[in-house]
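Quick start: read one record
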Amino acid sequence: MQEHADASGSGPDGAFRTKVNDFLESHCSKRGETTPVDPADEADAARRFQADLSAAGLAGLTYSRHFGGAGLTREHQNCFDELAAAWRLPNLPLAISHGMCLPMLNQFGSDTQRADFMADNISGRTIWCQMFSEPGAGSDVAGLSTKAVRDGDEWVISGQKVWTSGAHYCDYGIVVARTEPSVPKHQGLSMFIVDMSDPAIEVRPLRQISGDSGFNEVFFTDLRIPADWLLGDLNQGWNLAVAMLMFERVSIGAGGGGLGGERSSQSLIMLARRMGLAEDPCIRQDLADLWIRERIKGFIGRRIRDAVAAGRVPGPEGSIAKLNGALLVRAIRDVSMKLVGPSGQAWGPEGGDGERWSTFCLSAAGISIAGGTDEVQRNIIGDRVLGLPREPNPFKDVAWEDVPRN
């Protein structure tokens, strides 16, 4: 059962709003302000910020106090989100940890797992990653081959994951592995908690086109974990994976983290003013369109988060949010390049707006891939929302070990 916030209290009052505003003013900078952060310090900065947020009683607002949350209502979270929209919160390295792993622990973890892990996750003492994709199983997550074998009171995990965001600074992770190869691919998966500091786990950074190394390859060589680190039921990993993917799509498409999830229209409006383009009618139209799209994104996110708070795992609406978010990021990319002009292709030693938005432009394409490609989202929407027929699958009922693979 999912733990809900204490619904006995009333919604946020003036004192809560004042508390949030005071915290934001003392810990954050306004959006649009130049706040360079050394990428090497981002994770530590996020940990410090989250520790202060937790000490102020403002972390994990809707999670139970018993598991480290604030035990408040959905209205408190909505109020916090509205007030925080004008500020740049230095918590992007926690996006997966809080947007995906934390709700999975809360929804599917045992009481022991929630007691052991949730409070440290909420406070930022630990950061979590998720490991699904493999070199031979990208969009087809169910085709993964990383295996987990039971050995007495332990599970032994061997295999490889790829495109794992933040694995190089994370303390724990959630991994999906194959526990039964003799059944169809969706039926033989299970989900596990792993300690990323274990020497049996090797993390290798992947260099991206933007020059960053936020993604990683992760190798498991006979990793041994306690038997009770199985998350959910044995061989029910696909159901949990779908739930986690929906949390990911909600986080990318409707949450506050990730590219395009930071009220980018406000940053671009300020940029247009600095560059003397705020009165250009075409630019004004583009900025108005972005503002409207971000408002729509916010409404989608609120609807989904309210459903999650009520104990429901996101369904196809997560794909709608994800696809909408990816299209929004493309629009932000195009408008930002219009504004910075040639400085988006070449900039001086000081970098400035051209370098910042050029990096965004290079990274934007990844949002159409992370959490399932746009094509995957359209297939899900077509199947589960519009009721269109599915693509034929000749291997639907064939055991995973008997399916041809490269």
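Residues 1-9, 256-262 have pLDDT under 50 and may be disordered.
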